[in-house]
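A favour, since you know our structure tokens better than I do. What I am after is a single protein written out in full by you. Could you add the entry underneath, on a fresh line?


***
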Amino acid sequence: MSVTAQAGLFAGGVLLGAGGVALFSRRGQEAKVQAVPVTAAPVPAVRAPAPGAAVAAPISDALALSGHPGPIADLLKQRAYISSYDRRLQHPVWTAEHLTAESIARQPGPDGANRGKSFFTEDARIPELFRSTNAAYFRSGYDRGHMVPAADAKSSQQAMDETFLLSNIAPQVGPGMNRDYWAHTEDFVRRLTTKFDDLYVFTIPLYLPRQASDGKWRVSYEVIGSPPSVSVPTHFAKVILGTGLKASEGSLMAKAGLGSPVALGAFVMPNSMIPDTAPLRSFEADARS
């Protein structure tokens, strides 16, 4: 989206008359001061930048030595998804992906994606000081949970490898969550590509308050690593937008209340063991919140 910046510069002047200005000294004597002609300084022309051009922010001298502190979050672009990485929490703030039946199909032949060739890797785009590491997860009791699953990125080996970047990972409980209920939810989302032409999926780690024994609500969470560096979300959300309802599914989806060409759903799950018998509807949430 282009942003057009417009700037204007206004200048004014004070004209001095040819006559003198009468001043009075402390002794009450009148003195005359001859007016000196003043020449206005030239005003540099300022042009508005072209539409879409980047406008460099001025840097103060105070930041010249150490540099700008930089962003709290890094916007990262991969082949199968985009994400925002939080340097403070050291995991994604959100991930976004566009799924179709074609995009999640594995390419035939030796060039097809192979999960066995992918490894959890630090993201070199993140400054080392704020980078999530494998060491932080070692013996932490948490899985390295994909926010964008590897199975959503089968278009190429590189696309799948990028889902193993630690900038796409957040600590998740393993049994009953990452390895079970969460994985089943990811599979459910992929199956929706048979119902809709396009799916837009957003995955969001959350930190939700809990009511304490004193009746007050507080946000409390664990931080793993040595020193502690990677925050452990209390919940995870999936927001799913489906467009282009396939004609063959019209009547079936209509019975389920999803007969519109556009369907929106959101689910919020605790970062804890969830029984397989728990219905997905029990985790439904208002997507607007």
Observations:
- Residues 1-33 have pLDDT under 50 and may be disordered.
- The longest strand covers residues 196-206.
- The first helix runs from residue 134 to 137.
